[in-house]
Amino acid sequence: MPVKSFRPLTPSGRYVTIASFDEITKSKPEKSLVEIRKKNGGRNCYGRVTCRGWGGGHKQKHRIVDFKRKKHGIEANVIAIEYDPLRSARLALLEYKDGEKTYIVAPNGLTVGAKVMSGPTAPPEPGNCIPLKSVPVGLPIHNLELIPGRGGQLVRSAGVSATLMSRDEGYATIRLPSGEIRIINEVCYATVGQVGNSEHENVVWGKAGRSRHRGIHPLSRAVAKNPVDHPMGGGAGKTSGGGHPVTPWGVITKGFKTRNKRKLSNKFILVRRDGRPMKNK
User: pLDDT tens, 36-81?
Assistant: First the structure.
């Protein structure tokens, strides 16, 4: 997917780049597979702001994506590649022989007319969903399950893929896009191939309006606020207060570890994202 740039006829046009959308074959979503997405402006059920910087934005409809791929042994035909406003990857619209239609995250190289299948008997080809015990070592995978039967939870963003490194004693060793290496039950399912739309990282929004279209509000800098509004606010002239960067509630923002040291899933992590081995107690 190439990225388009523009002549700088306006100040923002000098920086804006957009996706070409050449791979999109269907402009409107399947009506039976969309839901209304009600926006909450970052507020919870009590009307309190729990996520700052959210609000506004264009109306969006939520596509119902099949992350479980439970129709084992039934071949499906790819009838369209579609855009999803709520995710960076593209969606592939599948139609099974019984007439049922579902969405899946479109892997790289999947085109209209291709055949895909799920289940332990499916071949390890792009778009097919198979258990980890059937995936050849070294093959890129995505839409990876953590718990058998729950559906794909990991590796679903545009252009990413995980790698199966080895298998031993009922577990598969997986290298995730972040660099983390963890073991996962080999009966968990994963989809073969790399997620498509790999040029998404090269798209530059280029102007504030494109952030507002996505519902992202601007935030004031901490040092520009008053002391009553932020621990880093106030001071004569420009100053950060000389303290460590913190949130409005005083929580350290750099270097402060937020992961629970006694988290049960720690024993499944072999190497952390930063490359250091996990110390399992």
Answer: 999 999 999 999 999 999 999 999 999 999 999 999 999 999 999 9
Q: Which residues contact 192 (CB under 8 A, 6 or more apart)?
A: 107, 124, 125, 126, 127, 128, 129, 130, 135, 139, 140, 141
Q: What is the pLDDT of residue 257?
A: 87
Long-range contacts of 122-130 (CB under 8 A, 24+ apart): 122/72, 122/73, 124/192, 125/192, 125/193, 126/192, 126/193, 127/78, 127/92, 127/191, 127/192, 127/193, 128/191, 128/192, 129/69, 129/189, 129/190, 129/191, 129/192, 130/189, 130/190, 130/192
Closest by CA position to 173, among listed 183, 162, 186, 163? 183
Domain boundaries, the chain: 3-40+53-200, 221-270
* CATH code of the domain occupying 221-270: 4.10.950.10
> What token pair was written down for 218?
């601007």
3-state secondary structure of 165: strand
**Contact between 134 and 187 (Cβ < 8 Å):** no
The two structure tokens encoding residue 180: 């983390």
Residues 206 and 15: beta-carbon distance below 8 Å: yes
Output the pLDDT for position 2: 85
Tokens of 209: 């309006």
Per-residue model confidence as pLDDT tens digits over 250-264: 999 998 988 898 999
pLDDT score at 1: 63
Q: How many helices (H) and strands (E) does the chain have?
A: 1, 17
- Checking if the pLDDT of 240 tops 90, the result is no
Taking domain 3-40+53-200, whether its CATH number is 3.40.50.1220 is answered by: no
* Predicted local confidence at residue 280, as pLDDT: 63
Read off the pTM.
0.90
